[in-house]
Amino acid sequence: MNPWFESVAEAQRRAARRLPDPVYKALLAGSERGLTIEDNQRAFAELGFAPHVAGLASVRSSETTVMGQELSMPVLISPTGVQAVHPLGEVAVARAAASRGIVMGLSTFASRSIEDVVAAGAPTLFQTSWTGSRAHLLAGLERAAAAGAVGLVLTLNWSFSEGRDWGSPAIPTRIDLPTAVRLAPAVLRRPRWLASWVRAGQLPDLTVPNLAGPGERVPTFFEAYGTWKNTPPPTWDDIAWLRSQWDGPFLVKGITRADDALRAVDAGATAISVSNHGGNNLDTERASIRSLPAVAAAVGDQVEVLLDGGIRRGSDVVKALALGARAVLIGRAYLWGLAANGQAGVENVLDVLRGGIDSAVLGLGHSSVRDLSAGDLIVPKGFSSPGR
């Protein structure tokens, strides 16, 4: 099989063929009935382009700047939890980001340490959630700063919605002998995936090293998740305090309402991401792209506005920029690439997105992604969510 693929959809198909069923379903996700995850992609399809046919630019630029970092295109790697789809996990993703000139986002719940990921070469944003004590949070920030993280991401939109109509996958707490025996039927049906771990001389790692202090035992993902779930949610004053502890760009992720966007500005955010957590939070939230115009209009140029949720092609990126985003973050798209072909698969996904961005910018008659505007789109009546 040719290792190169021409679409994110093909990357997903290959990931489905390569991954054990429980691992694939963990990536597929989507809370409750999965209506929000479906709307995230459907909404992009509702937006049409209004292209030109002559006088088009022969040379085009996809470059932009986000959170003080020069990007070759308006795409960032969104932080996602334990990436056990490939032995190198977040390190492979960071290497791909470095090779393609974009920024890496690393989750607190990642399976690789902030030190290892920064060493891979991409400018790295460290993501945290409001979990544990203030002292614990501060220790994590200090570690990230010492490692060389260039920005902080605070994820706010998570309400611990765990019921899924399609059936949640059986994800183990840790890989021990009884667990290996129980999962053997699913794993043995995917010999190439198993062989990749055998060659690496390790088992899938379900621990989260970024949540362990010096000399502390590294917690498992679900131990850390339990701590997060039992931590009282933050107030806006808590968020302002966290911002005061970080000397650098500060992104608040999970905004879908104009009033929350303005509160984030007041709390000191330098950037916000319009996001419904990829459809994994409260089901029946509107698609992120539907919330974007009202949020972007509310904050104006006070902060940089990003978007995540449903990005599967370069034209989706262009539509987000036309409606007010400076750039987008991708999650499942690069995970499909990682599962399909490791670092090269992530690079493949990024190349697919870059090609789609360039094609759309060409057709719309622009020479740069910075020139995109709502006038480039045909937006159906009632498409956007009203501001709050």
From TrEMBL:
Residues of the FMN hydroxy acid dehydrogenase domain: 1-382
Keywords in alphabetical order: Flavoprotein, FMN, Oxidoreductase
UniProt family annotation: Belongs to the FMN-dependent alpha-hydroxy acid dehydrogenase family.
CDD domains: alpha_hydroxyacid_oxid_FMN (cd02809)
Keyword S-adenosyl-L-methionine in annotation: no
NCBIfam families: actino_HemFlav
Domain of life of the source: Bacteria
Protein known as: Heme/flavin dehydrogenase (Mycofactocin system)
Cofactors demanded by this protein: FMN
UniProt entry tagged with the keyword Oxidoreductase: yes
